[in-house]
């Protein structure tokens, strides 16, 4: 049997969240750096496919490889720790505080950003032959994506911010479902299958993922996209981070905690008073 | 190809096998005061206890020393195998030899001379797993064959007065306390060990012994020829020799401590209500990704029991299943009112699951939630019972390694019990299967001792740390180092950890109790209490030595910096002095 009962993985999610809070600074940074770098690479891969084939579906179908790689290697994305770390505090695990959660989020953000930037610089070098030529077709495409998803939102004003926020909520709803689904399976192939589906959905719908954006937009700026760092941070990255946080925490972490963990029997439930039913002789 | 595979399999499955040859002779003397023996065990005894050889030589000045020699060897070879399987060979061996020493010494009549008592030398060799364990008192010798000669592994306890006069410095039965030489040596296949009394090794050179062993048809024949050679060379003492050859060492993977219990297929998750191997499943008590626990009724014993089943998540992990199967092994060996007992059923299980007594009550975690502000006396009462339970583990050479409030139950009648043995480390088993659980930290972030995070194996002091954290948490609701212990995985990071004073968090903890807690959860194991009885005493009566208001001296707090400062000032002094001495 390679499927884990929901009660089991609910407890496992909380344990996973707890271990994020208790992780040393060095480990947290390394793991998030690598996660950011690998995910960014997968994004570059997907854009390349989309440009070369002209079919965004093929790109979406293949994009989850990056996510599967980083999950199986035990690396952490900001979207994942948004969902998992708070559960340990909500479940009142000793020593788990909001301070510890924010520390973890802060470190994972820094690691993811540095990782994505590393890939962005590497890919920019590849797309422009070491900044000696105009960006190739893929590079130009990345620049255009960045413009549409910053200045486009900015042009729509508050409605634009609401849209980007909701797209980010839905994004982490899907991505964290992927993280949690992976815990349900005990085999590597099962984990990959469980993760693949929601990631595919999120990518094809063009939802806003904070770490993918940490790659797309800085590369866009480097490759001659017509928008500024301020546009990127104010009209994209910040609302996306908030949206990812809300989406992961409410639609995935909170829901599974409430329905599978709170309702599962406790070791001590009602022992003190209730006598054990007399067994049939 | 297939044949080779089959061979390989057989090879891996093979257990430790040792051939033994031995011979003893009174020689020119009337009586043989030497005594020797060996036990070649099989099955689980071989895995957990090993094969043992013992040799004793009674002193010639006493006419009862042959009784001493016989008693020493016989009691070692029987009692050693009766000690707990969980004990290490060192612990079991030294305890048994010490007991025998006391008995022999007790035979001495008041005022009688030491020379006339029940006194003998004693040497024992135990082969277990991939190690040889040596016990040695007196002037018999244990050797290992090395090339064409012998390497002496023991030191003679002999005091030389003059060229012709000498006496035994240490022996069994000589005094009421005994200092035993113990040593362990790694084995390789084909190793040959030799035990000799002075009647043999004082007359035949190591080289000759080695060449006799090499040329003889079997080990018994070799033993006989060596004794004959010693007699020929004029040996006037009793002569005994034992030779043991390691024919085969157990494979690192193939050792089964549980005799196949860990090979049973894991029990399925159970439905309620249902019947399972004669148990009536009544209710689910607990479910997590480590295990599922059900309340079940056992008609055979007419009792409610707790039935624990491996989780779906981890049933694929061989390590987890082995530890799971080990839980019952542990529970059966511990007998304390403060430790959960194993179930009593006589039925042979067909699946892997663990049955224990059913305890009605709540976990310490629940108790802490229910009693956020307990008074000191209640906490002391609970701690005293936990300590009793923990002692039962430590007496058996076991470490709990995962002590936390969820693993402590408070029964409705007030008895406190330690439950869950899934992380227990057993010294005796560790020797049989070295390298077990080497990679994983089995404890929990909040309660595991800091040394685990540096990659060290735990000691009893690590369990003390966990207990200290629990005590601290019961009183304050917080952890003594916050969430920082498990993050500090270098020596430097650990030395930066600071203890948060419990007295500063709550009025209910007096300074002196705080001092005792601080010592029990000290980051450095050596600075913790050596025994839990001291801790219990210190939380009952103020200990003047633990006044937190008196700061530790600079040298004690930071010895490295202290000596740096000392060295620097001395260096300055030296320069000043040199400068003064220089001719103007």
Proportion in β-strands of chain A? under 5%
- Secondary-structure content class of chain A: mainly alpha
Q: What's the multimeric state?
A: heterodimer
The rounded distance between the terminal residues' Cα atoms of chain B is 91 Å
The portion of residues assigned to helices of chain B is 25-40%
The total of helices of chain A stands at: 12
Name the largest protein-protein interface in this structure.
A-B, 40 and 42 residues
Order of helices and strands of chain A: HHHHHHHHHHHH
**CATH fold naming of the largest domain in chain B:** Phosphatase 2c, domain 1
Keywords:
heterodimer, A: 281 residues, mainly alpha, 12 helices, globular, B: 584 residues, alpha+beta, Phosphatase 2c, domain 1, Phosphorylase Kinase, domain 1, Transferase(Phosphotransferase), domain 1, five-stranded antiparallel β-sheet, 18 helices, disordered N terminus
Describe this structure in words.
The complex is a heterodimer of chains A (281) and B (584). With 281 residues, chain A is mainly α. Helix content of chain A is 75%, strand content 0%. Chain A has helices at residues 6-21, 25-53, 56-62, 64-72, 78-90, 98-127, 137-148, 151-155, 158-184, 188-204, 210-222, 229-261. In chain A, α7 packs across α11 (210-222). Chain B has 584 residues and is an alpha+beta fold. Chain B folds into three domains: 17-248, 4-Layer Sandwich (Phosphatase 2c, domain 1), CATH 3.60.40; 261-357, Phosphorylase Kinase, domain 1 (2-Layer Sandwich); 362-552, Transferase(Phosphotransferase), domain 1. Helices cover 34% and strands 21% of the residues of chain B. Chain B has 18 helices and 22 strands. Chain B has helices at 2-13, 43-48, 65-82, 89-106, 198-201, 206-215, 219-232, 318-333, 364-370, 376-395, 427-432, 450-453, 460-476, 491-495, 511-520, 532-538, 554-557, 559-581, and strands spanning 17-25, 34-39, 51-58, 120-128, 131-137, 141-146, 149-152, 158-160, 166-168, 181-186, 192-196, 239-248, 274-276, 279-287, 291-298, 303-310, 354-357, 361-363, 398-399, 408-411, 416-418, 425-426. Residues 1-12 of chain B have low confidence and may be disordered. Chain A binds chain B through residues 1-5, 7-9, 11-12, 15, 18-19, 21-27, 93-97, 100, 186-187, 264-269, 271-272, 276-277, 279-280, and chain B through 268-269, 280, 282-289, 293, 295, 297, 299, 304, 311-316, 360-363, 366, 405-406, 412, 445-446, 473, 478-479, 482-483, 486-489, 493. Chain A: Keywords: Membrane, Transmembrane, Transmembrane helix.
